[in-house]
Automatic annotation (TrEMBL):
Keywords assigned: Metal-binding, NAD, Transferase, Zinc
Protein name: protein acetyllysine N-acetyltransferase
Deacetylase sirtuin-type domain sequence ranges: 1-237
Domain of life of the source: Bacteria
InterPro entries: DHS-like_NAD/FAD-binding_dom (IPR029035), NAD-dep_sirtuin_deacylases (IPR050134), Sirtuin (IPR003000), Sirtuin_cat_small_dom_sf (IPR026591), Ssirtuin_cat_dom (IPR026590)
Cited Pfam families: SIR2
Record-listed Zn(2+) binding positions: C110, C141, C144
UniProt-annotated catalytic positions: H102
EC number: 2.3.1.286
PANTHER family: NAD-DEPENDENT PROTEIN DEACYLASE (PTHR11085:SF4), NAD-DEPENDENT PROTEIN DEACYLASE SIRTUIN-5, MITOCHONDRIAL-RELATED (PTHR11085)
Length: 239
């Protein structure tokens, strides 16, 4: 089994801006206003307008060579893709098994959809659905009538790490590839430690932090620069 863990750098070359930095999606916005539960409670319309921009931008973008390389890898091996990205470019490229730990821009859920213990389940609504247009002001949950929101993880909310599934595959992983992410933000950064014992590990990034990459084969550059060649190499080595 091969696990590919990806971040914003994978999709940046497709024209999807990162959230941080100049030209990023957060430029002109305060994070606490558009990416926190409190911001949602204070101004739902502002939050929805912000994610409408992101939805429309991501719908226009197409997979790049790195996305297609991962799809090619999945055509030959058992590949699980764990991504921090909320876009669906991996799916557009043909990848089937993608774990979106920060949610998906093309999904909506009820504002009462919480990750809470089962004993409190009566206080939540589990509605979630795929959408082909962004959530708009006034869109209500068909199950409970509360307002709908984008199915993305905000600051202060739990990341969907699928811990049970991770433990199921941990001993089966032979190759671990990290691409387009600094892998320094927790809890996602824990994946480097979780898969530490994997015999073959690669890290692809233009600015790798070598201090946390003990045991990795580091490829210092862009995803489209190194990933296609790496996939071809793995196809030969693991055939």
């Amino acid at each position: 089994m091969i696990v590919v863990f990806s971040g914003a750098g994978l999709s940046a070359e497709s024209g999807i801006p990162t959230f941080r930095g100049a030209g990023g999606l957060w430029e002109g916005y305060k994070i606490e206003e558009v990416a926190t539960p409190l911001g949602w409670m204070q101004n739902q319309k502002l939050v929805l307008d912000f994610y409408t921009q992101g939805f429309e931008k991501m719908q226009q973008c197409q997979p790049n060579a790195a996305h297609f390389a991962i799809a090619e890898l999945a055509n030959h091996f058992n590949v699980v893709c764990i991504t921090q990205n909320i876009d669906t470019l991996l799916e557009k490229a043909g990848v089937k098994d993608v774990w979106h730990i920060h949610g998906r821009i093309d999904h909506e859920k009820c504002e009462w959809h919480f990750d809470i213990p089962p004993m409190y389940a009566q206080w939540q609504c589990n509605y979630k659905a795929q959408i082909n247009k962004p959530v708009q002001w006034g869109d209500l949950c068909p199950k409970c009538g509360k307002h709908l929101r984008p199915d993305v993880v905000w600051f202060g909310e739990a990341v969907d790490m699928r811990v049970d599934d991770l433990y199921k595959i941990q001993s089966q992983v032979e190759v671990f590839i990290v691409v387009g992410t600094s892998a320094q933000v927790y809890p996602a950064a824990n994946l480097l430690k979780f898969f530490q014992a994997v015999p073959t590990k690669y890290f692809i990034d233009p600015n790798p932090n070598y201090e946390v990459l003990d045991g990795f084969n580091v490829l210092e550059g862009k995803a489209t620069e190194y990933l296609p060649a790496l996939v071809e190499s793995l196809k030969e080595e693991l055939a």
